[in-house]
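Extended Data, record Arsenite transport protein
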Amino acid sequence: MVAITPDILVVFAVILVALAFFATEPVPVDVTAIGVMVSLMLIQPASEALASAGMLGAPIVLFESYPGDALSGFANTATLTVLAMFILSEGVQRTGIIQLLGAKISTFTGDSELRQLGATVGVVGPISGFINNTAAVAILLPMVTDLADRGQTSPSKLLLPLSYASMFGGMLTLIGTSTNILASDVYSRITGEAPFTMFEFTALGAVVMAVGIVYLMTIGRRLTPARIEPRRDLTEEFEMAEYLTEVVVREDSPLVGQQVQRALVETDFDVDLLQLIRGESVFLEPLGPKEIQPGDVFTLRTDRNTLVELLDVEGLDLVPATVTEDELELADRGQNLVEVVVAPGSALVGESLASASFRQRYDATVLALRRGGELIRRRMDKLPLRVGDTLLVQATVESIERLDNNRNFIVAQEIERHDYRESKIPVAVGIVAGVVALAALDFLPIVVAALLGALAMVATKCLRPTELYDAVQWDVIFLLAGVIPLGIAMENSGAAELLAELVVMSGEFLPLIAVLGVFYFVTALLTNVISNNASVVLMIPVAIEAATTLGADPFSFVLAVMFAASTAFMTPVGYQTNLFVYGPGGYKFTDYIRVGGPLQLLLGVVTTIGVAYFFPLT
């Protein structure tokens, strides 16, 4: 039995604190990861100082090369490969090929929910094997929302399957998800074996995807709730009838002659101005500089009590009519009303609409906010935003296009864009195919092939140099760089070996395949509350130690951990794609357990048996 040393106790303390922060997210997960890295870096010199002062028997040594090992996450091949894959995915996205594919799909799905569901999971699965699955969901979410809209289907019936199917597809190849790339690197570093090849586990991934799709098309389809009614009008979907109204300025109003900004915006009333109707003209943001005239009609977002106060004070009369989506799109007869999802890594996370100066920065007005199944339509300005929050936004066509191009948001409807580089479709697809081929044929290491492909995207003008940095999800990069040293510290301290011995004890009364299943389900449960990349870093060293002790093949145990960490179905926070669809689908937290729980159990059994079948355990 491994002796419990101060080194092990310190590592366990760091892990417990990190798990608490990952689960509760008082700060973003990438900040927690960097905090873990810095903490581990401080422990070693602090313990040396205490040992020199006679207050500690021996210094705590977590890294053989200090501080090189602690900082190695930034130069790690997994980190650099993931960075390059984000750039490759962006190059493909900029061509508009996936949007063109979506348009063709909608021509034959019609109003059949089953065909819409089949098209959704049938498209996102294979695509997610070759571009990052998180990027695939971000690209396809508007297409699927519009597919549901045109077919008069609840978007809730399609969006959760979209997220789940992207996870299945991510397990088809090494580059499908950052988790696979990280797992390959950790496995290679600990065992000294070669990293995973491009299609090494594709057969197992195909089985998992096939079983998962059958589940989603049958049992899952019945379990997935229709939280949002089929949409005829976005104002109806967000139940805005009591919050949208029109008022007309009377001849005797004290507002006449004043600027809109001073008279109506900079007030204590909980009111948002959506548009100004003056004669035959309709004006959107910016409305602030305009001078108020008698007969002006303002469309407002407010509640009934505030409206009564406003009418009493400001010399306004109520226009007795219901405001619809069509009326909010009178300004330029374009798409002025859209749902906008706060994306992972967004600079607005933790900010409020007021502190982020949303209206001024984006020339757009937020009418309502949906957080899962909760609708918020008043006093939104001070509410801190979260990943997955869905904003009902009204703006000009130009402002909506800017929001669509902004990495902080995902516009949940397809909008007409003119900046797709369709002539570059063959080039971008060819570059990705070349990267896959070079890595699959072992001509170049995956990190070299991916970086070469990223460079080729710029050289062929599929991407502009200024777009490179926006293409990368830097929160994922810093998360990887921060958690990789934790895995190294677990190995060097003996913490991984101690945990492995505890698991091995179950091997005395369980068959080997059952121990493999234990690793799958423990990793799956862990991933549903913390980051999938953090789960891989924590569990793979333990899995390798346990497999070695049991006389099993470590590769099989690593695969079980990797598949479990990439398929977290039971919570919205378990995987980024689950958060993407949380707001647009109007889901409740329990919906993920209801639909994802049976799926997690089913795929746990399928994956465990599949690993044993394709990759002998001993």
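Summary. The chain has 26 helices and ten strands.
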